[in-house]
Amino acid sequence: MLSKSFPVLSPELQIGFHYRLKNIKDLYFHEALRKAVQNLQISSIDAELNEYVPTDSLQKLASFSIRGEAIFPVPILLKENPFLLGYYRLLLGFSQKEFYSKGPFGIFKLMEEKGKLSPKSSQLLNGLCVSLIASAAEFVVQFEEFNLLIISELQILTVGPQLRGSINNEYGQIATQKTFGIIKDLVSKYILSSTPTSIKIKNDSGRIVTIKFSSDPDIEIIEELQSGSRGLISIEIKGGKDISNIHNRIGEAEKSHQKARQRGYFEFMTIISVDIDYIALKSESPTTSHFFNLFKISDKNSFEYQRFKDIISSIISVNI
């Protein structure tokens, strides 16, 4: 006998991971290394491996039937394909933030992101390889077995959080667009002009109010006075759906709202995409005047939508 129906959970996050991982593999996994090796003389690669890599490390890899360049970056390979810096970073387990924010490594970020080797990074490339080879030698000595599958698995373990971070950024952009659309719908009869990123309305007091995308906060609502502009509402939108990271995101919202308050804003909204008690968040963002859930304010029949509408209406002086 069947019990109550269970909700159908969406696998959209994993589907997104699949396509992003496919693109990343083309740039940073073994296939990219194989193509670079094909374009070079093996004798030239071996010469640099022998110059830069400890003999015992190469011998240990040879005992696993693994060539040295599978683990150790040498200048000739990174010159041939600068994207391969990502291959070795992922293999050694360094996140982008951790790696590129340390010491001189930031100068090499364009190699992984754009496949470009600037004149300055080219001059420092030997030093980069020496550093990474030292890390890799420490890495190799800990393994009792090694093969291409293990290499791939380790790279995937490192890239996972990176993929989730990019998904969360994408969620954030979508959530901001949705919120902007809800506000635009609310003030539709007052609109004087609009673009994909801003709306100008004339409120019931005859003053111009601008609603626009911003980087900090995500959306800001500004009223034009004869004496100048006045910030009305700072809106921070955290679209990530991972509840385990909500407290970090609320902390980010608080910093943005504090900056807005220093610029004269007096109402602060934080919109989230996870279901959590707002009281639990208030201590982490005391500047936030009102918390809202994006999915609830998207439902015109919900109490939260009505509350959002009433607050917007009151603050910007429109009857909606």
Automatic annotation (TrEMBL):
It is an enzyme of class 3 (hydrolase). Its EC number is 3.1.21.-. GO terms for molecular function: endonuclease activity; hydrolase activity. Keywords: Endonuclease, Hydrolase, Nuclease. It comes from the Bacteria. InterPro entries: Restrct_endonuc_II_XcyI. This is XcyI family restriction endonuclease.
